[in-house]
Amino acid sequence: MKCRKCGAIAVINMRQHKLALCEEHFLEWVLERTERTIKRYRMFGPKDKILVAVSGGKDSLALWDVLLRLGYQVEGLYIHLGIDSGGYSDSSLEYVERFAAARGGARFRVVDVKTEYGQSVPELARRTHRGRKPCALCGLVKRHIMNRVAYEGGYDAIATGHNLDDEAAVLMQNTLRWQTGYLARQAPALPSTHPKLARKVKPFVRLYERETAAYAIVRGIEYIYDECPYAVGSTTNFYKELLNQLESRSPGAKLAFYLDFLRARKEGRLTLEGDEPPPMHECEKCGQPTTAPGLCAFCRLWVQRMDSG
Ligand code: Q46
Ligand code: ZN
Ligand code: ZN
Question: What's the CATH number of domain 31-223+231-277, 3.30.1330.10, 3.30.470.20, 2.60.120.280, 3.40.50.620?
Answer without folding.
Answer: 3.40.50.620
